[in-house]
Amino acid sequence: MATLKKFFPYSFGVANLKALIIKIVVYVVVGFVIGLVVGLLKFIPIIGIILGIIGWVVDIYCVVGIVLAPIMLTLMKTPQDVFVEAKAYLQIYFGGISGLMLYNMGSGILRAVGDSRRPLYFLVFSSCVNIVLDLLFVLGFHMGVEGVAYATIIAQFSSAALIYITLYRTHDVHRFQPKKLRIYPEMVRSIIRVGLPAGLQQALTSFSNVFVQGYINSFGTNCVAGWSCYHRIDQFILLPMQSISMASTTFVGQNIGHRDLERTEKGIRTAVMLSIVVTGILIGLVVIFCAPLIKIFNDDPGVVEYGVMFIRLISPFYLIICFNQIYAGALRGAGDAKAPMFIMLFSFVLFRQLYLAIGTQFINTEWFVGLGYPAGWAMCSTLQLLYYYKSKWRDRCRANWAAEDAAKEMKKA
Question: The pTM is what?
Answer without folding.
Answer: 0.69
